[in-house]
């Protein structure tokens, strides 16, 4: 009879749903968390265990990115399965243990074919689902999407992509003011798929109608939507004020002014913010020229812009940088940052029974951070993706 080894991670500040435990420990048994509690000796009846002293460090849940297009030089939109896994590995090394693959606007048949490939990787457990960003968005707010390929959000087309995803579609970004927009929102809501308002030119009133129809997410709030006006408040105010809506924020210092980030965060509250990367191929890879769907992108000093027109084209952000920036620059508590990078997106995606917090029975997905919030270790399902660099 063989005995399996239990890993005990001790001495760290452990962020639990109930708060932070100083000098706590996390017990990992196989692929699962067996315990997360104050630091006491392991039970004498427990299986043989290996203890790792993480004093002076933090242990937080693995990050959950619900909006990411690629990384490590590879794209979820156009890469082979092997290249998609390369992008996944890049983000995992930065603490993102759960991620949704986001597409960009392409021909419908191309997107349907893409969905089939990504669905296989979801079914294998490498991805948590698919997010279709485009083609159902406004040409007025297209950002880094090809205008010639945009189309109205016809429910029949939305259904086509849902079917192509074989049950793995998690979210669609829609300009809900366009013909078919509200009907598409209702279709998605009825099928348990997130309807997100984004790349939109909607008015305040049109956005309220979309929320009432079932939209529950704001795709990268502020970006690719009208600015707030005192007589025409637009979608931003409608999305921030409604308790049913979770707002995505890209906290890279480029997409949002720090004041705009803090305004949204404090208005929506910690329970209604999901920090995302919206990262493209260059994340974790470097400056240079890339393709984002059919469009050419240049990344210079870490900022991605379309070669033609200069629009921001996603980000080169990884969630560990967003976490660190949120705590050290924006003044968020570690607990609130954890909610926004782990618990909230896990809940939205319907995977919070497995990930998003450090609780017994959940997957052993966790990140070890040093006192300056730099990543020093990443564990996914009990295996070290990034070996702990401590001592």
Automatic annotation (TrEMBL):
A single MF term (Gene Ontology): metal ion binding
Binding site for substrate: 144, 223-224, 231, 255, 312-314
Catalytic class of the enzyme: hydrolase
Cofactor names: a divalent metal cation
Residues annotated as domain Amidohydrolase-related: 58-385
GO biological process, alphabetically ordered: N-acetylglucosamine catabolic process
Protein name: N-acetylglucosamine-6-phosphate deacetylase
Organism: Streptomyces candidus
């Amino acid at each position: 009879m063989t005995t399996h080894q239990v890993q005990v991670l001790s001495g760290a500040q452990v962020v639990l749903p109930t708060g932070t435990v100083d000098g706590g420990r996390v017990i990992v048994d196989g692929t699962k968390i067996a315990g997360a509690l104050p630091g006491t000796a392991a039970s004498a009846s427990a299986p043989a265990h290996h203890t790792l002293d993480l004093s002076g460090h933090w242990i937080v849940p693995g990050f959950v990115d619900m909006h990411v297009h690629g990384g490590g030089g590879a794209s979820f939109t156009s890469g082979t399965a092997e290249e998609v896994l390369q992008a996944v590995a890049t983000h995992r090394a930065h603490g993102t243990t759960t991620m949704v693959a986001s597409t960009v606007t392409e021909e419908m048949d191309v997107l349907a074919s893409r969905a089939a490939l990504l669905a296989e990787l979801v079914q294998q457990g490498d991805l948590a689902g698919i997010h279709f960003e485009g083609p159902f968005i406004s040409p007025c707010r297209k950002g880094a999407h090809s205008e010639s390929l945009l189309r109205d959000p016809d429910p029949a087309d939305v259904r086509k992509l849902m079917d192509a995803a074989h049950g793995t579609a998690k979210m669609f970004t829609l300009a809900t003011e366009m013909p078919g927009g509200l009907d598409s929102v209702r279709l998605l809501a009825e099928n348990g798929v997130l309807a997100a308002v984004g790349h939109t030119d909607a008015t305040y009133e049109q956005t309220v109608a979309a929320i009432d129809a079932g939209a529950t997410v704001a795709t990268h709030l502020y970006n690719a939507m009208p600015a707030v006006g005192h007589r025409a408040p637009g979608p931003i105010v409608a999305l921030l004020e409604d308790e049913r809506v979770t707002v995505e924020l890209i906290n890279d210092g480029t997409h949002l002014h720090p004041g705009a980030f803090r305004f949204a965060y404090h208005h929506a509250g910690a329970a209604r913010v999901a920090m995302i990367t919206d990262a493209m191929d260059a994340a974790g890879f470097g400056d240079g020229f890339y393709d984002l769907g059919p469009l050419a992108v240049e990344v210079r000093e870490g900022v991605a812009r379309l070669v033609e027109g200069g629009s921001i084209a996603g980000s080169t952000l990884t969630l560990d940088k967003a976490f660190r920036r949120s705590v050290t620059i924006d003044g968020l508590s570690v607990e609130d940052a954890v909610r926004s990078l782990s618990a909230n997106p896990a809940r939205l995606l319907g995977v919070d029974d497995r990930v998003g917090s450090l609780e017994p029975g959940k997957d052993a997905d966790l990140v070890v951070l040093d006192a300056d919030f730099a990543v020093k270790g990443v564990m996914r399902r009990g295996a070290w993706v990034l070996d702990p660099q401590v001592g």
